[in-house]
Design goal:
By secondary structure, the chain is mainly alpha-helical. Helix content is 61%, strand content 9%. It folds into two domains: 27-223, Cation efflux protein transmembrane domain (Alpha-lytic protease prodomain-like); 233-305, Alpha-Beta Plaits (2-Layer Sandwich). The chain contains eight helices and three strands. The chain has a three-stranded mixed beta sheet with strand order 1-2-3, covered by helices on one side. The protein is elongated, with a radius of gyration of 24 Å.
């Protein structure tokens, strides 16, 4: 999963309070996600049981990775449902950050699972143990079929939504992991080489940790109300100060509500209140900012809050 606020500037102007996000997941896509979750969980159970019977740590590792991805899918579904709830007097910003919080939990679980696999993989490399190659191959072939099928399901909507795209990429990576486990099983059947099982487990582990470490800063930035990477605060100020009638823009706060929604508040020194409409249009058209809270002041009336 990639939890990163990275909107491209909007191409069409919508009312800033009721704007439609092209990155939102449709109800149909949510159904695809839930089906993917169920299939992945069933597959994980089969891989864990098969891994225990066959004595394969790489198969169990693939199951752990698959389980992590399955829960990521479930959290995306739950977050979508929660995110649709309207803001109330306590949660005045609404519930859209549920997805980001869930993603943060998933990253921690993914990282811990990766560490566990490194320990197990190294243990198998130091002391290889006999494994049942035939069981590994057949279960991995089943896993590969399921991974390809769920990747196809999650591909719907992946072009316009980061979460859907990350689910698709994770399922695609699962398919590649299944190929690796198949290779491990074939090495046992054809060459009686057992160390490959540990090597595949380590590769899966390093991929899991890599994904967690790569995504962690982006998720933390959103939770810490950091400005989106592609927008500079000074660029926003410069764009607004070009509007005739605005003498100064200051006290700017720019942050991500979730991965798709950018919010801003600022103070403007201006004489004409009607300039707000033009300001909102520029914020949306040039920076993709739909949520804004703008305080208009008389010139030089707010010297203490200038940045």
């Amino acid at each position: 999963m990639s939890n990163h606020c990275h909107n491209e500037p909007a191409k069409h102007h919508h009312d800033h309070a009721m704007g439609h996000h092209h990155g939102e997941i449709s109800e149909k896509n949510v159904k695809y996600l839930f089906v993917s979750f169920l299939i992945n969980m069933l597959l994980s159970v089969a891989e864990i049981v098969g891994g225990i019977i066959a004595g394969s740590v790489s198969l169990i590792g693939d199951a752990l990775h698959n389980t992590s991805d399955a829960f990521s899918i479930l959290i995306a579904v739950i977050a979508f449902k929660i995110g649709k709830k309207k803001a109330n007097n306590k949660y005045t910003y609404g519930f859209k950050r549920a997805e980001i919080i869930g993603g943060f939990v998933n990253l921690i679980l993914l990282f811990i699972s990766g560490l566990y696999l490194i320990v197990e993989g190294c243990s198998r490399l130091i002391s290889p143990e006999p494994i049942e190659g035939e069981i590994i191959v057949w279960i991995s072939i089943l896993a590969l079929i399921v991974d390809v099928a769920t990747a196809k399901l999650s591909h719907h909507g992946s072009a316009h939504n980061t979460n859907m795209r990350m689910v698709f990429l994770h399922n695609l990576a699962d398919a590649l992991g299944s190929v690796g486990v198949i290779v491990s099983g074939l090495c046992v059947i054809w060459f009686d080489v057992y160390a490959v099982d540990g090597i595949v487990a380590l590769l899966i582990a390093f991929y899991m940790i890599y994904q967690a470490v790569l995504s962690f800063p982006k998720v933390v930035n959103i939770l810490m109300n950091a400005a989106p990477d592609h927008i500079k605060v000074q660029d926003v100020a410069n764009a607004l100060e070009k509007i005739e009638g605005i003498s100064n823009v200051h006290h700017i706060h720019l942050w991500c509500i979730n991965e798709n929604d950018i919010a801003l508040d600022c103070h403007l020194e201006a004489e004409n209140l009607e300039l707000i409409q033009e300001v909102n249009k520029i914020l949306l058209d040039e920076f993709g900012i739909e949520h804004s809270n703008i305080q208009v002041e008389q010139n030089s009336s707010c010297t203490k809050c200038r940045l």
